[in-house]
Amino acid sequence: MAQNASMEEFEALLNESLEIDTPTEGSVVKGKVIAIEAGQAIIDVGYKMEGRVELKEFANPGEAPEVEIGDEVEVFLRSVENARGEAVISRDLARREAAWDRLEEAYGKEERVEGAIFGRVKGGFTVDLGGAVAFLPGSQVDVRPVRDAGPLMGLKQPFQILKMDRRRGNIVVSRRAILEESRAEQRAEVIANLAEGQNVDGVVKNITEYGAFVDLGGVDGLLHVTDMAWRRVNDPREILSIGETVKVQVIKINKETHRISLGMKQLQEDPWDTVIAKYPLGSVHQGRVTNITDYGAFVELEAGVEGLVHVSEMSWTKKNVHPGKIVSTSQEVDVMVLEIDTAKRRVSLGLKQTQRNPWEVFAESHPPGTEVEGEVKNITEFGLFVGLPGDIDGMVHLSDLTWEGRGEDVIGDYRKGDIVRAQVTEVDTDKERISLSIKAVGGDPYAETLGGVKRGSVITVEVTKIEDGGIEVDYEGMKSFIRRSDLARDRADQRPERFGVGDKVDVRVTNVDSKNHRIGLSIKAREIAEEKEAVEQYGSSDSGASLGDILGAALKGDD
């Protein structure tokens, strides 16, 4: 019985000894390098166990393995024994476990960790953090997009852990956060030494369509395109290039946002200080068209001095056309200074003022009575527009189309493109109007007829048409119309139907319009005038004679 008890005690002690001395699989153990052969390090992990580890597991990314015989190292025990009776161990897993412990502690304290970028993956890069592999997104590499990450590969540098999940084995780091932090400290220091109005040297780092970013020694300032030169700058690349050292003036510093506005033109003399003296009102200068808009064209008189030629001041004759059809960009043109506003830094220019008013030129060479020939440009309800020398138009009113009939009846005989001859009747240079007359060409066929007709005279006309409102009559080729109320003195006789076509009628001339070739006629006025004359010659009703007696005597006297 005593012997059996001692055997049980021995077995228990042996088992306890084995449990204490034999390492647990899946744990990190210490070992000693006892040999290096065939690219592997043979490590004695104790407990009469040896294992093999590839030499590359002892190297940092991009570096040679650092391991020698006799080195004590930590390895991860995957399995106590494999098919060859060796322990299955890993240096990488051991470093990873140690690294995760270290990184979790650093993450909790929001401390920086050191690592090296060693590979490129979709969306970013891989970083070795001393055994643990982290993901570095492309947006977190630098404060600005990095086109070539080659110089950063394999370089040990600090990173900030953004998030980590040990269970999933995910770590996300940022290099940008480190740069921004140090950059903010550097910016604050540099900005503290800057003052508005100070002139400094800087290096052009980046150029955009609206300006350029200039490095002032750790802090960037914006040089806006409008502050590069007094003249208009369409593209900053016209005067700047990346890497160029430039002298700039600090215009404004925002202490809160750390934004700095810079200027180059402020270091040059302002050309507007001498504008009034150099460009007096009414003077003509040559300039270059720099920009064309819907409302006009900008013309540069000199570097930094630009004026606007409004569309209304571009041409005497071309109305309602786009300025681009009159001038072109970079074209050299002569302009007249119309107005200067130094407060708003604006100059109003005129292009047409450098040329003579074509209506004045036409008036000098074509006084009233001159005959011209031109093309019918347009036909309206009130007349024709005819093209004239100087790229201007004249108008022939309906009343100036023909001597015979009405203008409304003959305007349909004309077509655009017809060549017509007309006589200049009036030129109004202020209103830019030219009046023409087609019917005046060849003279006035009724001038002689009208010359023999005077107001108050009695003439004989022929009835040509009977209408409800009166009768149409002809006098030596001239048509006239006698209204119903003028057909007789007595109302009962004011009937158009009592006349017949071809009848000869004596009428009194009440009006003569030589310009429009019209004469006013009245039978009633003739009768009243005859009655008055008879009364004056043969007495009056006051002497005892009746009106019938007087008229009878007058008629007998006429016989």
TrEMBL record:
SMART domains: S1. CDD domains: S1_RPS1_repeat_ec1_hs1, S1_RPS1_repeat_ec2_hs2, S1_RPS1_repeat_ec3, S1_RPS1_repeat_ec6. Keywords: Repeat, Ribonucleoprotein, Ribosomal protein, RNA-binding. The keyword Phosphoprotein does not apply. GO terms for biological process: translation. SUPFAM superfamilies: Nucleic acid-binding proteins. GO terms for cellular component: cytosolic small ribosomal subunit. Residues 26-92, 110-176, 197-265, 282-352, 369-439, 456-524 form the S1 motif domain. Pfam families: S1. InterPro entries: NA-bd_OB-fold, Ribos_protein_bS1-like, Ribosomal_bS1, Ribosomal_protein_S1-like, S1_domain. GO terms for molecular function: mRNA binding; structural constituent of ribosome. PANTHER family: 30S RIBOSOMAL PROTEIN S1, SMALL RIBOSOMAL SUBUNIT PROTEIN BS1C. Belongs to the bacterial ribosomal protein bS1 family. Binds mRNA; thus facilitating recognition of the initiation point. It is needed to translate mRNA with a short Shine-Dalgarno (SD) purine-rich sequence. This is 30S ribosomal protein S1. It comes from Jannaschia aquimarina. The gene is rpsA.
